[in-house]
Amino acid sequence: MANRIARAGGALVLVSALALSACSTGASTDGGTDAAACAPSDGPVTLSFTTWLPGMEDAVAIWNEANPDIQVEVQTGPNGNGGTYNNFFNQIEAGNAPDLGQIEYDALPNFRVQDGVVNIADCAGVLDAQDQFIDWTWSQVTFGEENAVYAVPQDTGPEGLFYRADLFENAGIAIPTTWAEFEEAAKAVRAEGGYITNFSQSDINAFAGLVWQADGQWFKNDGEAWDVTLDSPESIMVAEYWQNLIDQDLVAVLPPWTDEWNNGYNSGDVWSWVSAVWGANTITSGAPDTAGNWAVAQMPQWNEGESAAGNWGGSSTAVLKGSEHPYEAAQFALWLNTDPEALSSMNKTANIYPATKTGGDLPAFSEGLDFYGGQNIYDVFAAAGAEVNPNFTWGPTMTQTYTDVADGFSAAISGSGTLSEALTNGQQKTIDAMKAAAIAVNE
Amino acid sequence: MSATTTPVKKHNGPRESLFSRAGAMLVMAICTFYFLVPIWWLFVAATKDRADFTTSAPLWFADFNLIENIGNLAAYRDGVFFRWMLNSVLYAGAGAAIATLFATMMGYALAKYSFRGRETLFNVVLGGVLVPATALALPLFLVFSQVGATNTFWSVFLPSIVSPFGVYLARIYATSSVPDELVEAARIDGSGEVRTFFTVATRLMTPAMVTIFLFQFVTIWNNFFLPLIMLRDEKLFPVTLGLYIWNSQVSQIPEIRAYVIIGALLSIIPLIIAFLSLQRFWRSGLGTGAIK
Q: Do the Cβ atoms of A243 and A424 come closer than 8 Å?
């Protein structure tokens, strides 16, 4: 563990070295000069904040009321990969980026490498806030660097196993606690005419969550250059496990987020889903006929008796390059992501699950849900959140990696190639893409 | 069908065989079906509540909830959807009107006045037809950034009021439909050039203007990339961008899906109205050209 953290620290130094040429001035501000840059501004300021969370105005209104001198304006756009990240980069280039922006954890390294986010470690209160956040989220926003904070964690997606309690019970199949049991259960479910779950061919970040749970890594930074390890032993192990289930026709392979896929759950053809906490709403909405029959358990383990968890999704609030008011922006970002009132508001309008250690104590998470047979499913996710491996690192070109691996996965589903081969190919394409972007890679 | 290229009068020409007519009808029927099914699906889906949407047959009605769905859409986020519709009508309607005026004026000038560099100018404009609007969005963003005008109404409106294709069409049409003698006669009667343009030329060019207007209206209405890059303030969004953003939030807020569907249905209504109300001009225009 200590070893890993030390390595991650080294990685941080390397990231600065990797910054593109335009970053050389930015890199120097990582040190002491930021303290001066992070002094409070004189007089009232107005901050712009771009986010794609619906209803952010409600949370911001609470802040604006209490802080007449630091007014925040909400701007919106499509989700990150849907266009907002590109917009951020364009705006940073043109010098008119918003003061604050929402950035998912898997996109943050890209912004760091391109010097698009401001290090707010020297802004008052930022470093002290570390204890309030779940450990792994903090390493996502610091990259393990000393005296560096590139964003404030906002939400997380700890994973659990959503399952049809009624179907498993009627069929007399025990809820699997290990992946070995999961395969056995899959055979039993298949004998009943159903599929235990659906393997998503396009949610590569969900697959990454499974690798994450298995203590695997896809990227690493040794201070000089990136290591790309999409084909690490853990990653290949997970791929081969699912390939085996696919080969035996034990899992459905419906394209995710389609009507067909919703219908698979709604009709009871598919019995479980390893998904993040926000998946609770997806099921409620997509499978309305199954209300009351679902429950949530810890996700299956690779080794019996463990309680490792993966994570799927999650965002942070970053101060973007060019902001004239990093101090005020940082204060707002801290408040937004730690204040119980703000978190409740965002949970209400956008279903976010906070990244703070006490976020699970919000009133919204303290009640049983009828859709899940009265179970308080958030207890399971709160426990999972604490077990997520803090050292998983995202790479600087995740959009490209996702696309290439998803292409390979789709091909594997239709019978050409395997999931492992898709990862090996994705590995090479990622290395090529990083080289093309002048990012140093170890081969 | 290729027989129509010979200059024979229609009624005297050889009658097409029953087989080939049936074949043509079949092809058209298939095409019509192919184009209408998605719209039919959209209409049916827009009448369903959330539960029916996943559970009932996709191409037939369940409980009819169209009015309620529209009500929910109007209530969501204080009816911002209708603001987007209004914005789109403004961007597309006013933009297309001004673009039509500019294109017609330039096309007329290129057709009726000979001056040095006329063909060069025309070729430059023609070059503009070849450059896709998408490729210009980023340069436009940087230009508007220089003057601090991104995220404003003008950042989407101003780039919409030029139509190189319209200029091309207007020139071709003016050459063939506005006789030089008529312009000459107007001059002799003491009409100024501007007055001649507005009182004589525009009347003769109406079919071309309608075509330009419709093309430009649809282009602006469907223009998605430029607003995506330029706008961040929800109040300025056109409906295409707004729906796209909602659609990207579906995994977070599944109930938004219903709003995207009903919104998509409502968003095509103005286009249908524009086409139905203007197509008679359009048809007469194409017919005129054909007879000549």
A: no
Which is more confidently placed, A4 or A141?
A141
B250 touches chain A (CB under 8 A): yes
Together in a domain, B245 and B274: yes
Same domain, B14 and B81: no
Output the pLDDT for position B124: 93
What are the two backbone dihedrals, phi and then psi, of residue A199, each rounded to the nearest 5 degrees? -90, 120
pLDDT digits (tens, 9 = 90+) for B59-77: 888 888 888 889 888 888 8
CATH code of the domain occupying A160-310+392-442: 3.40.190.10
Q: Please, what's the b/e burial string for A251-270 (b: 16 or more CB within 10 A of its CB; e: otherwise)? A: bbbbebbeeebbbbbbebeb
Question: In terms of pLDDT, which residue wins out, A37 or B86?
Answer: B86
- Split into its structural domains, chain B has a count of 2
Please give the pLDDT value at position A30.
40
Indicate the pLDDT class of residue A223, thresholds 50, 70 and 90. confident
Is A138 within 8 Å of A385 (Cβ atoms)?
no
Based on the fold, state whether residues B221 and B91 are members of the same structural domain: yes
Tell me which residue in A86, A98, A259 faces B54 most closely, judged by beta carbons: A259
Chain B residue numbers touching A82 (CB-CB < 8 A): 244-245, 248
CB contact under 8 A, B248 and A94: no
Q: How many beta-carbon pairs below 8 A join chains A and B?
A: 87
Please tell me the total number of residues recorded for chain B in this structure.
292
Tokens 């290591």 belong to residue: A227
- The answer to whether residue A316 scores a pLDDT higher than 60 is yes
Are residues B32 and B88 both part of a single domain?
no
A257 inside 8 A of chain B by CB: yes
- Cβ distance B253 to A52 less than 8 Å, yes or no, reads no
Using a CB-CB cut-off of 8 Å, the residues of chain B touching A284 are 254
User: For the domain with range A2-156+314-365, which CATH number is right: 3.40.190.10, 3.40.640.10, 3.40.50.300, 3.40.50.10800?
Assistant: 3.40.190.10
Q: Is A259 on the interface with B (CB under 8 A)?
A: yes
Of B138, B141, B255, the CB nearest to A285: B255
Q: Per-residue pLDDT tens for A271-313? A: 999 999 999 988 988 888 899 999 999 999 999 999 999 999 9
Question: Could you list the residue range(s) of the whole structural domain that residue B46 is in?
Answer: 2-68
- The answer to whether B141 contacts chain A (CB < 8 Å) is yes
Residue in chain B nearest A98 by alpha carbon: B232
pLDDT digits over A55-66, tens only?
899 999 999 999
Residue in chain B closest to A258 (alpha carbons) equals B54
Q: State which H helix or E strand residue A109 sits in.
A: helix A108-113
Contact B248 A82 (CB under 8 A): yes
Distance from CA of A345 to the nearest CA of B (A): 14
Q: Kindly state the average pLDDT of the residues A337-343.
A: 94
Which residue in the set B54, B145, B232 is minimally distant from A50, CB to CB? B232
Q: Are B278 and B184 in a shared domain? A: yes
CATH number at residue B233: 1.10.3720.10
User: What ipTM does this complex have?
Assistant: 0.81
- Residue B12 pLDDT: 53
